[in-house]
Amino acid sequence: MAGKISASMMCADLVHLNETIKIFEEEKIEYLHIDVMDGEFVPNFGLGVDYIRALRDLTDIPLDLHLMILNPEYKLQWMGIQKTDIVSIHYESTYQVQRALDWLLPFGCKRFLAINPATPIYAIEEVLDYIDGINLLMVNPGFAGQKIVPSTIKKAEKLAMLLDNNNKRNITIEVDGNITPENGKRLSDIGANVFVCGSSSIFRGDVLEYRNNIRDFRKNIT
Q1: Catalytic residue chosen out of the listed positions 35, 38, 64, 85
Q2: pLDDT at 140
Q3: Among candidates 71, 158, 161, which has minimal Cα distance to 117?
């Protein structure tokens, strides 16, 4: 099965946002990845509810909402979540992981659990029945342009094995952080399905280069 691209919008040039979205629509980008950051869970502020609302007006491409915020279960109603969206909450962001996942149910979206590079795979085993996907962070979250944490490649292999052993290969593996074309190919071979593409892949160079960047990346995840 061909992998899907989730374009990391924190890497987008706002001056050329309309042109960028047009290219993404023509190239059939599957998701727009929105890093929502509160300055507490991660040491940065990111894309907020007004930005999300504006994107909804610009395009029908589904959103991939990555909530890097503390206690996300109390803030879900702010996001304007739609049924076509992915919503990732972090395992590390709440004391009540299973409850937070349950609070996503009324929105009808895909429920993903995100885990940081140092969070062990076994931590997610008890919530496999409550999720549609796992967002595997390949860098420590908060900033674009970081290099992949080398141990996360082995971690992706462990995750694929865990899903196999629990008959849960229907669960999507999303990978996020320094997903170069080469890393994308390697992770696709392991079993990743959704690839968060930012400054190291589709957003390289001028906006006019995005189309070819997307096409080149897709060759590595088919």
Answers
A1: 35
A2: 87
A3: 158
CA distance 129 to 121: 15
Q: Which of 38, 64, 85, 176 is catalytic?
A: 176
Residue 46 pLDDT: 85
**Cα separation values, 69 from 40, 116, 199, Å:** 7, 13, 23
Active site residue 102: no
d(CA 132, CA 87): 10
Give the whole-angstrom CA distance, residue 139 versus residue 179: 10
The answer to whether residue 13 is catalytic is no
Those residues of the chain that have pLDDT short of 50 are none
Q: What is the DSSP letter of 39?
A: S
Under 8 Å between Cβ of 220 and 182: yes
pLDDT digits (tens, 9 = 90+) for 6-41: 999 999 999 999 999 999 999 999 999 999 999 889
Specify the pLDDT at position 161.
97
Q: Which domain holds residue 58?
A: 4-218
Instruction: State how many domains the chain has.
Output: 1
Q: Which CATH number fits the domain that encloses residue 175?
A: 3.20.20.70
Predicted local confidence at residue 146, as pLDDT: 77
